[in-house]
């Protein structure tokens, strides 16, 4: 029974990991940027959700559109005003730029909001649905619904809409897309904004499922990267499966092998990179 | 006084770095700079900020090898900085169960061990390119402090019991004041300062030698075009591994000397592995100019001159509290406005004007 419970915990956690990976994967696949500020976006949304709950008392799940919207705007501005300026520079440049942003947001958060542990605790937080001996926390069940809905929406948007096609076109061939009349800068900004909004949703969910402080988010960049590598770059089902697989391994390793999860996360990453660098469902770009 | 030393150091290094000036002028500037650095403790009351600048410079020279010459963004050098300090402390501590080696044995031994560790890690991560490499190094930075606190290896009943203190404080021995020709030389003011100067000189020396060696050219070739370099017969995996190990070695050297001066390794452990240290080496290289011999020297002195100026204006608490925020803002601003660092002006092609910043800003837009 213990085993089943751990497997469930891993899957429930993995769903949020999948959401983090999905946003990270879009920016990587289409803009060819490893966005090291992704974890900072998650953090900002977690704090926004927390303050909306602690102040005006808005329910974290109802506040989800607010944090997603706020992060969408922030992401759009960052890409269109800042990162678009260095898109033709070397990979090192965007790395350092997003690394600087990540450090800026995290350290500002530490100064402004301190390192105190916080959690949005509506009445259903830390309460579980019991099925037999199994316990399923309500907030995590809510997270499953949110993540599956968002994943489906992203899939439909990329696959069925005109704007979605233009995003995929830019990811496949930037020059050809520009020649077809697609505004590259705007498309980049939009993609980055959607990715930030997904990070926003993940942050909002994480603020209710467990306690957090600015340093707790540091591991999410590597986590997102591992999820994407595990699932394969540019694959939406891949991100979902990668997230779930990562959640399972993380939970079991954390329970049976090591207390230090950071080491586990890192070990998984190295293992995946060595064994199968293209991921389990690897393809190039969103096609 | 320290500010004056730092500023004259910047001017002298700039003269030495200018390819336009005559060889005699450049040699002269280097000699004056060396004399200034050696004489510094005689003219200033406290050398601790100079010590900080020089050790940070050594670590930045390390980052310059991998980030500047090779063009690989490594975010994990801070791991080797901290590891170097901890291993050195483990060898040198006078606490029971430690070897109590003198510093001139303990520090080189620690640096050697770290380069072996870096080689082992490097062989794994250096099969990776670009994005994959950088993220793997970020992982190293996060995993290393956990590794040092790993009970299985370093706990009370383990392979190397309590080598890193095993949760208890681990201390470097105090360096006693030296007696030379009847004069008492204060350890903080003289001995640590010269140790710091030595690390910086090793850093710049390694860089000068690298710039003239076959390896240096191989690294620049990898930075400019890795496929082409491979086609031309450069063994890229070997070259990158050497660069990575060299980079980690300098980080460990600077780190162990930094730790030696800090003395107590438990409360300061987080500070050694901190993001501030990680940002610091990167920003120093960026300010000066990546992949250059004098860039890190100029960058380090400018960064610490700025901090010293801020400290005298607003107090050291303020500087300490906002240091990390300031560093991260600097990274963003420099990447956007001065991606080639101050070397862009020193190389003589461009005169200093604000237009250069704007031109840099829009040079690579979509």
Our Rg estimate of chain A from Cα atoms comes to 18 Å
Principal-axes shape call of chain B: globular
What's the helical proportion of residues of chain B? over 70%
Share of β-strand residues of chain B: under 5%
Query: Radius of gyration of chain B over alpha carbons?
Result: 21 Å
The largest β sheet of chain A comes out as: 2 strands, antiparallel
Average of per-residue pLDDT values of chain A: 87
Low-confidence stretches of chain A: 283-287
Helix vs. strand class of chain A: mainly alpha
Question: What is this structure, in a nutshell?
Answer:
The complex is a heterodimer of chains A (287) and B (366). With 287 residues, chain A is mostly helical.
Please give a structural write-up.
The complex is a heterodimer of chains A (287) and B (366). With 287 residues, chain A is mainly alpha-helical. Helix content of chain A is 71%, strand content 3%. Chain A has helices spanning 2-31, 38-54, 64-82, 91-113, 138-160, 162-172, 174-179, 184-209, 220-231, 236-257, 261-275; strands spanning 128-131, 134-137. A two-stranded antiparallel sheet of chain A has the order 1-2. The N and C termini of chain A lie far apart (42 Å). The relative contact order of chain A is 0.21. Residues 283-287 of chain A have low confidence and may be disordered. A two-stranded antiparallel ribbon of chain B has the order 1-2. The longest helix of chain B has 27 residues, at 236-262. The interface between A and B is large, with 47 and 47 residues.
């Amino acid at each position: 029974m213990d085993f089943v419970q751990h497997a469930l915990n891993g899957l429930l956690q993995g769903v949020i990991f999948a959401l983090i990976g999905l946003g990270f994967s879009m920016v990587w696949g289409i803009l060819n940027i490893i966005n090291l500020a992704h974890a900072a976006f998650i953090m900002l949304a977690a704090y926004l959700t927390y303050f909306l709950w602690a102040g005006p008392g808005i329910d974290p799940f109802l506040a989800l559109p607010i944090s997603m919207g706020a992060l969408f705007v922030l992401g759009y501005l960052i890409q269109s005003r800042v990162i678009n300026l260095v898109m033709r520079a070397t990979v090192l440049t965007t790395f350092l730029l997003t690394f600087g942003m990540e450090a800026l947001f995290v350290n500002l958060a530490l100064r402004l909001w301190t390192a105190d542990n916080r959690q949005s605790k509506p009445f259903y937080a830390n309460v579980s649905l019991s099925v037999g001996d199994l316990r399923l926390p309500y907030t995590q069940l809510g997270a499953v619904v949110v993540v599956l809905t968002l994943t489906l929406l992203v899939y439909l948007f990329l696959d069925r809409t005109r704007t979605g096609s233009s995003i995929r076109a830019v990811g496949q061939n930037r020059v050809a897309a520009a020649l077809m009349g697609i505004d590259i800068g705007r498309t980049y900004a939009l993609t980055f904004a959607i990715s930030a909004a997904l990070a926003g949703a993940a942050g909002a969910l994480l603020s209710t499922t467990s306690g957090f402080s600015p340093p707790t988010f540091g591991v999410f960049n590597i986590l997102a990267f591992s999820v994407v590598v595990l699932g394969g770059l540019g694959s939406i089902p891949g991100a979902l499966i990668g997230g779930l697989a990562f959640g399972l391994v993380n939970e079991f390793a954390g329970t049976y092998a090591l207390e230090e999860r950071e080491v586990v996360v890192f070990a998984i990453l190295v293992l995946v990179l060595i064994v199968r660098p293209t991921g389990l469902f690897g393809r190039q770009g969103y096609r | 006084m320290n500010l004056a030393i730092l500023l004259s150091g910047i001017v002298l290094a700039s003269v030495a770095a200018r390819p336009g000036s005559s060889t005699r002028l450049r040699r002269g500037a280097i000699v004056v700079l060396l004399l200034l650095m050696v004489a510094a403790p005689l003219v200033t009351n406290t050398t601790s900020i100079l010590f900080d600048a020089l050790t940070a410079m050594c670590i930045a020279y390390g980052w310059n090898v991998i980030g500047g010459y090779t063009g690989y963004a490594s975010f994990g050098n801070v791991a080797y900085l901290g590891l170097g300090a901890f291993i050195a402390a483990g060898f040198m501590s006078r606490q029971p169960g430690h070897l109590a080696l003198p510093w001139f044995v303990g520090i080189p031994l620690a640096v050697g061990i770290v380069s072996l560790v870096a080689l082992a890690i490097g062989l794994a991560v250096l099969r990776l390119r670009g994005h994959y490499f950088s993220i793997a190094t970020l992982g190293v930075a996060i995993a290393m402090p956990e590794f040092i606190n790993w009970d299985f290896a370093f706990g009370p009943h383990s392979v190397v019991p309590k080598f890193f203190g095993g949760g208890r404080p681990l201390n470097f021995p105090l360096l006693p004041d030296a007696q030379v020709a009847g004069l008492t030389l204060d350890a903080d003011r003289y001995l640590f300062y010269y140790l710091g100067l030595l690390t910086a000189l090793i850093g710049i020396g390694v860089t000068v030698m690298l710039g003239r060696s076959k390896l240096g050219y191989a690294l620049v070739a990898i930075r400019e075009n890795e496929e082409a370099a491979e086609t031309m017969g450069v063994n890229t995996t070997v070259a990158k591994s050497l660069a990575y190990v060299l980079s980690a070695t300098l980080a460990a050297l600077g780190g162990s000397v930094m730790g030696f001066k800090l003395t107590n390794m438990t409360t300061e452990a987080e500070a050694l592995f901190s993001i501030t240290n990680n940002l610091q080496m990167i920003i120093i290289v960026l300010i000066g100019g990546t992949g250059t011999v004098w860039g890190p020297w100029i960058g380090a002195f400018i960064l610490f001159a700025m901090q010293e100026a801020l400290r005298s204006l607003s107090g050291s608490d303020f500087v300490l509290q906002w240091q990390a925020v300031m560093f991260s803002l600097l990274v963003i601003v420099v990447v956007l406005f001065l991606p080639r660092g101050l070397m862009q002006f020193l190389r003589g092609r461009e005169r200093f004007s604000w237009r250069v910043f704007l031109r840099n800003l829009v040079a690579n837009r979509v």
